[in-house]
Amino acid sequence: MLKCKPSILSLALAAAGVSVMFAPVTVGAAENVEDKTPAEVLVPTQAPVEETELDLSNIERIEVTGYSRSLIDSLNAKRFSDTVSEQLSADDLGALPDVSMADALTRLPGISAVRTGGQAAEINIRGMSGGFVFSTLNGREQVSTSGTRSIEFDQYPSELISSAAVYKSPKASLIEGGVAGTVELETASPLSASDTHNFMVNARGMYNDRASEVYGAKEYGHRLSFSYQGKFLDETLGVALGFARLEQPSVATQFIGLAYNDNKDVDGVAGDTNGPIDNPANEYISEGFEVQHLGGVETRNGYMGAIEWTPVDNFTLKADAFVSRFDSEAFARGYRVKLGGPSASVANPVLDGNAVIGGTFNRNSKSYTRVEIVNDDNQDFDEVNSFGVNADWQLTDDLNVSADVSYSSAKSDFRNGLLWSNVAVDANADSPVFDENVSISYQLNGLNLPDVGFNQAGAFSDIDRVMVSKYGIYPFENEDEVKAYRLDFTYLLDNDYIASVEVGARYSDRNYSNNRSVFEYGNDGAFSKSEPPLKLTNDMVNVVDWEGDFSYFPSYLAIDLDAALSAWFPDGVPQPVQTWGNAAGVLDPQGYTSNYSWSVLQSGEVFEKVLAGYVMLNIDTEIGDIPVTGNFGVRIVNTDQSATLLENVAGDPALGAQNIIDEVGIINNYYAPTIKGITYTDYLPSLNLNFKITDDSQIRFAAAKVMSRPPINRLAGDASASVSDDGIINGSSTNNPFLMPFYADQFDLSYERYFDEGAFVAALFYKNIDSFIDTVAIDDFDFKGNGFNVPDYIVDPVSGEQIETTNGTYTTAVNNSEGGYIRGLELAYTQVFASLPEAWSGLGFNASYSYTESEVQSITSLGGDSVTQDLPGLSNNVLSATLFYSYEGFETRVSARYRDEFVSEQVAINEQVVNFAAETVVDYQASYQMTDSFGVLFQVNNLTDEPTKSYFGTEQKTGTLQYFGREFYLGFTYVM
Which stretches make up the TonB-dependent receptor plug domain (predicted)? Predict the structure, then answer.
């Protein structure tokens, strides 16, 4: 008879006041605990024993759901994994408590999230951003609505995911692609469910406590989910179905500082031209800043289905589907302040180093100093689809074959609608005149809101002064799909060293497309003569006052977009088109004021075909008296990538120039359509070893070469140039179809100790990254000499004067060989206080800490002077902790997630990488199980109303200050 001691799972459940049932388990000499699920293997085994029927009174079978079960199951899954990994599990479909998988994953050591609009969306692993994270669903590659390779995890409702794993070290059988790690999401396997039938309903109402401060925002929303798992035909047929709906208000109030991309001598001190420049002649000036109310509604509908059939013992066929629809309709209202650039008149400047962070800016005849009233309307319609069929045969006792066919697609239609107004001298005049009398005073206060003053403040809410000067719609449409085919073989070996060998192959065909289009009316910098400003009427507007922390900012006019557009365009609002516009070489060679060629040049397709094969040996042996398990193998990957490209050949037919007709019939013959790309092969070895030094402790070592492909949109071909109002030519080819992957050699060493009431894990990791993608800026670039069709002069739209053009900066993407290391430490501790008196035996604690550092840095000049900044996604210190308690059906917990300063894309500004301040996010949840089937729940997200704050280089140069509010949930769960 084999005597089993209590496991951490049983103790946790006893502490929660949950009864346990007993069931028989047979352990044979040929069985490994790694082949068992965490629910089947609750305690460590000794060396394999003779096959023995166990005493029923000593074997525990657990029937429980909730946070304690999820936590301890996750520990058990980590314990018996063959790689360095973190695990999340829910015993029942729909039992994970988080809003999305992004929130759920941040509970794991070394994982943090970037909040967008108050919600966790992109995750960072071990100090690396989402672009280095590879993601699968049911073992299949997933494409993204982001237009990159970075999965937006808020697309995946936690109610439809049964488990998640984060593989920090790879193995040869895993699909390549994650330098930071691989996130594997799993939906339900209905034949593995403990009950024959299970039905769950989860409903919650929600409330945002800042929504009342934002005119037009909704305060209330809801979450609703249904799930069913059932087994039929003597448990040979399983069915799982799930639906999850989220409708939540999108609320924020924000201040946005803009980059320091202008310069001017504001202090009258000449620069030091000898030696280091301590005081350059010019100081850096910000483009300006914005103050905005954000509101709207985000609606997500998720669907999951699976059918699993086992007609005979050695064959299983499973088909599954996951569909997500995430729609967002949001407005951004307030004003945008343009300081006026190098031509502005600046008085009383306040400096932070060489950057102006305060002063009084006055408009003059050459500057563009102004305040624009902003009423933007943004719509985002995202679709995610994932389908797959898997067949698994146990052909003989030793040979297993698995075949898989899958399809994943994503589509995003983001419509950026802009409605900008300026102040007129008299909006009722027959020919309204732009008010040139503009004076703006401001003083940044670092990570706090600034002091501001406007001489036109009273006009911002005056219908007799404000006129709409520009309306525009700028859609971003992305489509991404991948078809994949996979075949795997596993053959068991009978020897003392290698337990089995795995070989397999995978082929995938991916197609990404990006389409841009545009509609514009008017001019945001002044009043256009050809497209005059639009008059506002009382039925179109409401005066909006700022509240709370922003209450000292001047009021402004909020515009009812539908009412306004119906009045201005009675025959229907013109829709965006893909057009050359008045580009060079089309119609008027000097007509750059309406050059929309970017809408054609930035549209195109990317093609990626990948053929991969692997061989992996699974280790099961002993070194001395120490059992050793793990695997080693190699993955060979051949990649063929290409993209469509329009090359500027100045209309030379010999170079392939063709007549290209846009959607409005304009012909451009300057470009040659082509497809360019590259083919390469990679060899990715990996090793994972697990040394079981005692029954309760083990040491892991892993080493591998890993890769992450460039963001899919960075492979798209584009090359464009534009001329600014002052005649400077700037251009970019920020994408490049010849970009190679990121590569890294990585090593992991960890110690895991499991004890009766918890577990302790310590890990060290080191990654040596070969290269990164850099966007290189080339100053004084010869655009005409390099084939760009650019004008010799432009015409000032106001004065009519000719302005000679000059060469500016050209940016392009390259693989930078300057890589470097990322290294760190991770600690995790779980404690269940089962030995305390009964009323306190449900107390528990779970915490993790990670320290990460890197020598990898990049150069940024967004704050003026060129300075170094850390790798995007890297926080030196990340800490998460949860204190939980349960007693007689009542369960409560408080969780905190802290990350110190890090680098990421600036909130509300695309493609600007800035510094973010440290943040601590606290969540609270309490529930009570009133009956075996019915429970109620109360939850608060962002309990302390933690804002997001960013800055340019130094904290005095304010980036984005965004306040979201708290979200309160009240609901119930019903299970039968």
Answer: 85-181
Q: Tokens 């085919």 belong to which residue?
A: 485
Domain range for 457 is 187-191+206-492+519-575
Structure tokens at 250: 């999108």
**Strand-pair partners of 326:** 300, 382
What pLDDT is attached to residue 351?
Answer: 93
What gap in Å lies between CA 616 and CA 636, rounded to an integer?
12
H/E stretch holding 104: helix 101-105
Q: Is 597 exposed, middle or buried (0-12, 13-18, 19+ CB in 10 A)?
A: buried
pLDDT in tens, 900-946: 999 887 766 656 788 999 999 999 999 999 998 999 999 999 999 99
For the chain, the farthest-separated pair of C-alpha atoms sits apart, in whole angstroms, at 100
Measured CA to CA, the distance from residue 89 to residue 926 in angstroms comes to: 20
Each residue of 673-686: pLDDT tens digit? Answer: 989 899 999 999 99
Model-level pTM?
0.84
Name the CA radius of gyration of the chain, rounded: 30
Question: In which band, very low, low, confident or very high, does the pLDDT at 337 lie, cut at 50, 70 and 90?
Answer: very high
Q: Which of 411, 531, 546 is nearest to 475 (CA)?
A: 411
CA-nearest of 821, 875, 858 to 179 is 821
Give 569's contacts (C-beta < 8 A, 6+ positions apart).
Answer: none
**Beta-carbon contacts of residue 633 (< 8 Å; ≥ 6 apart):** 171, 172, 173, 502, 614, 615, 616, 617, 685, 686
Query: In the structure, what pLDDT confidence band is assigned to residue 31 with cuts at 50, 70 and 90?
Result: very low
Amino acid sitting at position 683:
Y
Residue 810 C-alpha from the chain's centroid? 28
Distance CA(338)–CA(457), nearest Å, equals 15
Domain annotation covers residue 364 = yes
Q: E strand or H helix at 416, and its extent?
A: strand 399-423
- Virtual CA dihedral for 65, 69, 70, 76, nearest 10 degrees? -140
| pLDDT single digits (tens) 406-418 | 999 999 999 989 9
| Residue showing tokens 């390549």 | 176
215 belongs to a structural domain: yes
Token look-up 């929600």 returns: 206
Give the torsion through C-alpha atoms of 138, 144, 150, 154, to 10 deg.
-80
Residue type, 936: V
CA–CA separation, 915 and 257 (whole Å):
12
Per-residue pLDDT, 16: 32
Question: In the structure encoding, which two tokens stand for residue 219, read together?
Answer: 């305060």
Which H/E stretch holds residue 758?
Answer: strand 758-769
For residue range 776-815, list pLDDT tens digits in order: 777 888 877 766 666 777 777 667 788 888 888 877 777 7
Over range 213-226, report the average pLDDT. 94
| Helices 67-79, 8-15: crossing angle, 10 deg rounding | 170
Residue 620 to residue 627: CA distance in whole angstroms: 7
pLDDT of residue 724: 74
DSSP state at residue 598: H
**Number of folded domains that form the chain:** 1
* Full DSSP string of 316-345: EEEEEEEEEEEEEEEEEEEEEEE--GGGSE
Instruction: Quickly count: other Cβ atoms within 10 Å of residue 574's Cβ.
Output: 13
> Comparing C-alpha atoms, which of 227, 192, 23 is closest to residue 976?
227
Listed residue (559, 139, 564) closest to 335, CA to CA: 559
Question: Is residue 558 a part of any domain in this protein?
Answer: yes
**What 3-state class would DSSP assign to 114?**
strand
**CB-based contact 146:711 (threshold 8 Å):** no
Query: What is the SS3 assignment for 287?
Result: coil
**Scanning the structure block, which residue is given the tokens 């050459």?**
366
Q: Judging by DSSP bridges, how do beta strands 626-648 and 519-522 pair with one another?
A: unpaired
Residue type, 230: G
Q: Which of 262, 328, 270 is nearest to 299 (CA)?
A: 328
Residue 231, in any domain of the structure: yes
